[in-house]
Amino acid sequence: MKRPFRKVRKRVPYDILSRRGHALITAIPYIWLLVFFLIPCLFLLRISFSDAILARPPYTDIVSILPEGLLQIRLNISSYLTLFRDELYQRGLITSFAIAGSSTFCCLLIGYPMAYTIARSSEKVRPILQLLVILPFWTSFLIRVYAWIALLSPTGVINGLFLRFGLISEPLALMQTPFAVCLGIVYAYLPFMVLPLCVSITRIDTELLDAAHDLGCRPLKTFLAITLPLSFSGMIAGSVLVFIPAIGEYVIPELLGGSETLTIGRIVWNEFFVNMSWPVASALAILLILFVVLPISCWQRWREVRA
Amino acid sequence: MTGSSSRTLKTILFLGYAFLYIPLLVIVFFSFNKARLMTTWTGFSLKWYQELLSDTVMLRATWTSFRIAAISATIAVVLGTLAAVAIVRFQRFRGKTLFTGLVTAPLVMPDIVTGLSLLLLFVAIQHLTGWPQSRGVMTVIIAHTTLAIAYVTAVVQVRLAEFDRSLEEAALDLGASPLKVFFVITLPLIAPAVATGWLFAFALSLDDVVIASFVAGPGATTLPMVIFSSLRLGISPEINALTTILILFLSFGVSIAAITIRKTRR
After folding, report:
1. Measuring CA to CA, which of A139, A194, B191, B254 is 20 to 30 A from B4?
2. Is the Cβ of A22 closer than 8 Å to some Cβ of chain B?
3. Which residues contact B96 (CB under 8 A, 6 or more apart)?
């Protein structure tokens, strides 16, 4: 006789873990991130509203207790006013956006055909081709920037070659240009663009392409009507991954750029280390979070939820 | 795909690889150059390697960097794995949205903002309590750990979400304690992801110059900080030699990994 199938109560692991256990597991990383990530951001906000003074640390406290037992909170918005009034910062913002935007676009232009070819290659070679894209990334970031100093500088390889073959009579000013900065960013972050693109192009159902072919669609039209729209998510993911580090980039514009590529990253650094004006540096950082980091992360979250 | 367009695509791919590799190969080539400048080849020499290996500042910074990277990667792996377990396995708890937000936020934060904000925290704490007396290795470790948690969690989370949970359930049904289940079943299953996360965190720490410049004290100059200050001066033959050594190590590691993968497949 068949025994009647009894429904087994399904236990989810960790559910039998006491609530204390749950709380403990969550609390350890939670507290770490609160203390070393959220609270520092609040400090940024707080110091952006303080006065700069010549002392250690070089800012005043915004909260003070007056002798009459009054708690006083003084918000000094002069740092923000400086940012809006002084043309230097606006120019920095424009420069940053222009450089990050054009580098992202170049990454897309170079990365898309590469990713497309890799995704359309046979399954056996694909991992190797992908590995070849990541491999330079495993050398150090600074080394990859240095590679372009070595190539572009007046005493570098390209100028050396050109001088030798008599193409030029004196070294070209290749370094310390916006072009060099873009080149450096594209070189440093190209894998970030190629890999997500590879994933999304590989995922496209090839039956769709076969169907289009069978129905007499020309390859170019198939590409424009099917592949390109379906790989859109990869293009967005790759662009975000390149744009975010590019917009706050300090090292590349500092090493490869000249005085005209004064990006936000460099301005924050200079305000902090050179001018010792911590409130202005903090205010800039806050604006960077408010207008760049928050919108992009909210937008990404929205896309995730929708998907 | 027609023949000609496929050929064009292959050419583009080849040019892409050339763009990625030629700059590095040029450096490797010139690391054996006798002259300091990279404009002409004057003869084979190993003197820059000699100079690099006798550069005590560089060697000390390398040791500091490796120590910081190993410690911060280890802490980050523990915290990141806990965070991943909390996010994937715990149904709902108060503040979960904030928690997931906090875990992923360091990924999109520019380094310069992370570095500045952490330094402000350390300065304020020091002002109030006197600790840390001077910023040094400790503060860099804290900063790198915070950044790396995000990467570790992202990697481990994926692995935790996809593996077969019936094994865990079976162990629980057979009376194993949850802690034992975690160490005997769950941890070995997610071990590859944890290892990847550790390597990622390690590499991240070794690569960072901006955050370290903000939070490091005088006693904790890391290797990237030393390299960065020498790059400010332009071309440096010592850095050429360093690049070559790095690429040598990297190719060694990759070939070992490739051989092991091929062996396990057979």
Report:
1. A194
2. yes
3. B87, B90
> What ranges do the domains of chain A cover?
19-77, 86-276
Q: What percent of the residues of chain B are helix, what percent strand, and what percent coil, each to the nearest 5?
A: 80, 0, 20
Q: Which CATH architecture has domain B62-237?
A: Orthogonal Bundle (1.10)
- For chain B, the maximum distance between any two Cα atoms, rounded to a whole number of angstroms, is 74
- Ranges under pLDDT 50 in chain B: 1
Within 10 angstroms of residue B22's Cβ, the number of other Cβ atoms is 13
Helix A232-247 to helix A294-306 angle (10° resolution) is: 160
Chain B residues whose beta carbon lies within 8 Å of the beta carbon of residue A160? 37-40
- Residues contacting A221, CB < 8 A, separation 6+: A212
| B246/A289 CB distance under 8 A | no
Residues A107 and A244 sit within 8 Å (Cβ to Cβ):
no
Residue A70's H or E segment, with its range, is strand A70-73
Nearest to A157 by CA among A141, A140, A171, A169: A171
Which tokens sit at A122?
A: 């046979």
SS3 state of residue A257: coil
Which residues, numbered 164 to 193 in chain A, qualify as contacts with chain B under a Cβ-Cβ cut-off of 8 Å?
164, 187, 190
CA pseudo-torsion sign B66, B69, B74, B77: negative
Handedness of CA B219, A255, A114, A300 (dihedral sign): positive
All structural domains of chain B with their residue ranges = 62-237
A30 CB neighbours in chain B (<8 A) are 83, 86, 95, 99, 102
Question: Is the separation of the CB atoms in A256 and A184 below 8 Å?
Answer: yes
Alpha-helical regions (H) of A121-177: 126-134, 141-152, 157-164
| Helix (H) / strand (E) containing A66 | strand A63-66
Strand partners, B12: none
Q: What is the pLDDT of residue A190?
A: 95
pLDDT band at A3 (very low <50, low <70, confident <90, very high): low
Q: What are the chain A neighbours of B114 within 8 Å (beta carbons)?
A: 40
Q: CATH fold of A86-276, please?
A: MetI-like fold (1.10.3720)
Q: What is the dihedral angle through the alpha carbons of B235, B236, B240, B241, rounded to the nearest 10 degrees?
A: 170
Q: At A261, which amino acid appears?
A: T
CB A307 within 8 A of CB A200: no
Distances (CA, A) of B163 to B136, B183, B188: 41, 15, 11
Strands (E), A150-264: none
The helix (H) or strand (E) run that includes residue A71 is strand A70-73
Chain B residue nearest residue A281, CA to CA: B116
What DSSP state is assigned to residue A231? T
Handedness of CA B171, B175, B177, B180 (dihedral sign): negative
What value of ipTM does the predicted structure carry?
0.88
The contacts of residue A147 (CB under 8 Å, 6+ apart) are: A187, B23, B24, B26, B27, B243
pLDDT tens for B158-200 read 888 887 788 888 888 888 888 888 888 888 889 989 999 999 8
Query: pLDDT tens for residues A66-94?
Result: 888 788 787 888 888 888 888 889 899 99
- Count of H helices and E strands in chain A? 16, 2
